[in-house]
Design goal:
Enzyme class: lyase
Number of domains: 1
Mean pLDDT: 97
Distance between the termini: 43 Å
Radius of gyration: 18 Å
Keywords: Isomerase, Lyase, Peroxisome
Organism: Duganella guangzhouensis
Bound molecules: ligand A1D88
EC number: 4.2.1.17
Strand content: 15-25%
Order of helices and strands: EEHEEHHEEHEEHHEHEHHH
Helix content: 40-55%
Number of helices: 10
Protein name: Enoyl-CoA hydratase
Length: 257
């Protein structure tokens, strides 16, 4: 099972479990998480959700082989499992806690902006190398990171694809707290347990109120990003970037105007 899923003491835990590929996410993994989140919406036994990975890797982001083999021919990505997953996550009415250790690449960082409480280990490293892959930001990150970090810092992360550590993520407001890696999982589980014990209706309304102002702009940003992202996935720049990654060489973008 490349996504470990369990419901215990009111917490739905989803854990990336593909360490030999650095937890890179395939279509099947997105689908498994989308299905679990969708089922959780109407399951009163689930009162909090915990998203996590391993102690040395959260996720290397979208599986690049999947990107190469399954680029959408029509350019539309709304029917893909990544879309189902991100819509289920961003639309979840239940509180979502994330616990991040090691690398959180691409969508691994983007998805955190749709969670409620985000805890990172001191070994966490965040990056959004969309431009470096010939792509563009996705699932609201162009808007949300700019709001969280301010434009100039967001530009470093989204244009230059600069990676950053847990302390910087904390300073910029992307995460809630930094913990020693050995304490991360238990701490995040403890926070989720606190949410479970609180009145579910109060949590639901509080989350809805906190997210109300950004709801329409995020929906618009996702639609605009998807229009570009779907086309860029099958463009030559992205093909060169994906091939370069697997051939363990630097991509050569100078051949493209
Ligand atoms: C809509 C969503 C958009 C996105 O998410 S865009 C972001 C896509 N992700 C990436 O560009 C990240 C690519 N991966 C990396 O940069 C590195 O990995 C890491 C920094 C995460 C870790 O580096 P290290 O510890 O040196 O591991 P390693 O040797 O590069 O990887 C171990 C094995 O895992 C495979 N792998 C890593 N990431 C991916 C991936 N994203 N898709 C498919 N395979 C991946 C490698 O190829 C390799 O395999 P082998 O052992 O056969 O050489």
């Amino acid at each position: 099972m490349e996504i470990l899923s369990s419901i215990e003491n009111g917490i739905l835990t989803l854990e990336f479990n593909r360490p030999e590929r650095k937890n890179a996410i395939t279509a099947a993994m997105y689908q498994a998480m989308a299905d679990a989140l969708t089922a959780a919406e109407s399951d009163t036994a689930v009162r909090a959700i915990l998203l996590t990975g391993k102690s040395d890797i959260f996720t290397a982001g979208n599986d690049l082989e999947d990107f190469m083999k399954n680029a959408p021919t029509s350019g539309a990505i709304e029917d893909r499992s990544v879309y189902q997953f991100m819509m289920a996550l961003s639309g979840s009415t239940k509180p979502v806690v994330a616990a991040v250790a090691g690398n959180a690449v691409g969508i691994g960082t983007t998805l955190l902006m749709h969670c409620d409480l985000v805890y990172a280990a001191d070994n966490a490293k965040f990056s959004m190398p969309f431009v470096q892959l010939g792509l563009c930001p996705e699932f609201g990150s162009s808007l949300l990171l700019t709001q969280i970090a301010g434009y100039p810092r967001a530009a470093e992360k989204l244009m230059l694809g600069e990676a950053f550590g847990a302390q910087e993520a904390l300073e910029m407001g992307l995460i809630s707290k930094v913990l020693p890696v050995a304490e991360l999982r238990a701490f995040a589980e403890g926070q989720a347990a606190k949410l479970v014990a609180l009145p579910a209706s109060s949590i639901r309304v509080t989350k809805e109120l906190m997210k109300a102002a950004r709801k329409a702009p995020v929906t618009d940003a996702i639609a605009a990003e998807n229009t570009h992202f779907g086309k860029m996935l099958s463009a030559p720049e992205a093909k060169e970037a994906f091939m370069a990654f697997f051939q363990k060489r630097k991509p050569d973008f100078t051949q493209f105007a």
